[in-house]
Give the backbone structure.
Amino acid sequence: RHGLAEATVKPTWSGHTVATMVAGLRELVLPILRRLGLAAPAATQARLAQIADQPQLRGLAETALWHLLGQRGRGGQAEPALRLPVSCTLTRQAPAAMADEAAQFAATHGVSRFKLKGGQGMACDADGVRRVLAAVPGSRVQVDANSAYAPEDLPAYAAQLRDAGAQLLEDPCPMPPLAFARQVANSVLPLLVDLA
């Protein structure tokens, strides 16, 4: 049986690289899971909580633990094996640097979906999309602008990103709940909003 979990492995977000995350799991988390595991979920969770300043490691372990516990309800039958696409988030930087990072993740980890952190100017964001798509042919790109633009800029911004090849736009501008339906109806790209 396997417990599934995911985390952002990026030094600027989680303080981890792939190597430090693997080392943390191997040295801190797996000994606890092996010792306590499913036999005592509350004790396992309490022991994991004692790992200081490592919310990513604890979150991975707790999510995997809950996933395993959920399998008990199905008579211990694991879910069928799934191949899910993985997305890599590219933090704000020059478009050429984003493209280089995307190419590196594609070559090293087989990643072909990218979320670009936008908000660097509409033309710069669109250039980032074009460069990532050129660096990793066949990839899929979405942009998260973190509400960097004004609502009146949304039509032009979405059009620039669509023309550059983006497939989804996340949080382009502040979007009060009553304005959301209107913005979605008028957007040339699908919108994802987590700050509405």
User: Anything to note?
Assistant: Residues 79 and 95 are 40 Å apart (CA to CA). The mean pLDDT is 84. The radius of gyration is 20 Å.
